[in-house]
Amino acid sequence: EAGVAQSPRYKIIEKRQSVAFWCNPISGHATLYWYQQILGQGPKLLIQFQNNGVVDDSQLPKDRFSAERLKGVDSTLKIQPAKLEDSAVYLCASSSNRGTGELFFGEGSRLTVL
Amino acid sequence: AQSVTQPDIHITVSEGASLELRCNYSYGATPYLFWYVQSPGQGLQLLLKYFSGDTLVQGIKGFEAEFKRSQSSFNLRKPSVHWSDAAEYFCAVGANSNYQLIWGAGTKLIIKP
């Protein structure tokens, strides 16, 4: 079974530029999460999708971050314009609807904002 | 408020020695409990989980954890660590009907040769 795929693995941009990250979850997983992980901290949930609907985006900085999952499969997270404090690893995870709460993570996209 | 505390930011253990990583949580009901491991440059991998039943759970790579309700703890143990266990370990609690996880800040495990 293929795991969660993310790209790009690394991205370096200057502040005020834009960036987009892509995630393809495990086949059949209805729930998709985007997390932000700043160095030395645990993951912070940005947004949770159930199929193509948003379950929770309360911690997403909506003035600069956006995310979509148009067909209920893959997802894109965008940052525009980026700030220095957005430097982090952006982790995508997916889970099935079996109610166990187990998340499967991709390898992450490391963003450096200069 | 719901929270997860991992009191140790770093732990250094000699190869072959035993390991215990601490995790305490604050949650009103019986939580779902998880331990994940993150190797350098990698995503998070599930080590083990507790939902109900036997309070001692076995996981991958020889790890186990024990749920102690009276102490609100879910400590991770391994009898003999290997150099490949060097990584960061995160404890998490599944805390609502949306199965969102509340994460600890992580404990970095350093293995001495």
Biggest β-sheet description of chain B: 6 strands, mixed
How many E strands of chain A? 11
N-to-C order of helices and strands of chain B: EEEEEEEEEEEE
Number of helices of chain B: 0
Percent helix among the residues of chain B?
under 10%
Beta strand % of chain B = over 45%
Alpha carbon gap, first and last residue of chain A? 37 Å
Oligomer kind: heterodimer
Gap from first CA to last CA of chain B: 41 Å
What is the count of DSSP helices of chain A, taking H or I runs of 4+ residues? 0
Label this structure with key terms:
heterodimer, A: 114 residues, mainly beta, seven-stranded mixed β-sheet, 11 strands, 0% helix, 48% strand, globular, B: 113 residues, six-stranded mixed β-sheet, four-stranded antiparallel β-sheet, 12 strands
Question: What does this molecule look like?
Answer:
The complex is a heterodimer of chains A (114) and B (113). Chain A is mainly beta and 114 residues long. Chain A is built from no helices and 11 strands. In chain A, strands 2, 4, 5, 6, 9, 10 and 11 form a 7-stranded mixed β-sheet that branches. In chain A, a hairpin with a 6-residue loop joins strand 4 and strand 5. Chain A is globular. The model of chain A has no long low-confidence stretch (mean pLDDT 92). The mean pLDDT of chain B is 91.
